[in-house]
Amino acid sequence: MLLTGAAGFIGARVAEVLRAAGHEVIAVDAMLPAAHGPGAEPPADCLRVDVRDAEALTGLLAGVDVVCHQAAVVGAGVDPGDAPAYAGHNDYGTAALLAAMFASGCRRLVLASSMVVYGPGRYDCAAHGPVDPAPRTRADLDAGRFEHRCPHCGAEVTWRLVPEDAPLRPRTLYAASKTAQEHYALAWAEAGGADVVALRYHNVYGPHMPRDTPYSGVAAIFRSQLESGGVPRVFEDGKQMRDFVHVDDVAAANRAAIDALDAGLHGFNAVNVCSGRPISILQVATALCAARGAPPPQVTGQYRSGDARHLVADPARAAELLGFRATIDPLDGLREFAFAPLRS
Ligand code: UD1
Hints:
The protein has helices at 9-20, 33-36, 54-61, 83-104, 138-142, 173-192, 218-227, 247-262, 281-292, 316-322, 330-337; strands at 2-4, 26-29, 47-48, 67-69, 108-114, 122-125, 129-131, 158-160, 195-201, 203-205, 233-234, 241-242, 244-246, 268-273, 279-280, 298-299. By secondary structure, the protein is of the alpha/beta class.
């Protein structure tokens, strides 16, 4: 099998788990300076290959029966100037990979997707049932009113689990590119009679997560704040809900997806990859503080426009289609993560 993005935080763990399971893994990574630092060399068991390089890919794909595509530019994607990087590496990179796979006769793909395809998430109004809330207004956020409102009556709405058939509502460049990757993969599956599992990762954390960078998820940011002697700064009121899934569980989901394709899973299948144990951002910060014996986190009331308020997935389809159930409870995983090595 071919694994792209194999030197990254998630890809490296996927490589280990697949090799331990007996897969013969051809590991590639473009070693982008933004992710690995300038001049970084690939690890010993990984080739420097950019998925946009059709010629290099075609050479590697001979005899490969499945591709596990983790390579992507990640992060929030809110700087308009980054659009070409997302479109180039993620959209075009996936298109080039799919064409090379088709030419080589490889018809199975596991694609790393993201919960960000769901945009603001799913909400219920007590009076109107499931609703698509309007973006939160500055006036509400400045006044410390952080919940979304019903588009019909203006009442505050409550979050619900997001199933895979929820509408895709990408709101950032990164989300747009993840949605595009899924759409290219779906079209490729239909046109080429191929099979795809798109794994929609939730908030992934774990050992060797990149340190605090503009692109880091909140768990790494909190860790760095604790390491430099501060306490985590929790935005909004800290009650925003997420699903934190350990990188070992994400690697297990990739293995399960490959097994399901081997066992005959057909067509395009999008699947949430989450722990199934929702947790608030304040709970995440509190768990990390407690594990390190630090004072409690500071809830700042600050907000970032464009942040999803609550984004929590339904894990049912992953169990049903892939037999995948996360095994690491976020509270246990975060306790371990409080002292786990990070990558600089
Ligand atoms: C994150 C990633 C997204 C990825 C997704 C799934 C970023 C910026 N976002 O989305 O790309 O696809 O996970 O893995 O990488 N917060 C604080 N204090 C801080 C920073 C953030 O309280 O210092 C809060 C935010 O307001 C938000 C929550 O923590 O409510 C989560 O933030 P973050 O991890 O950055 O973004 P996600 O939206 O969960």
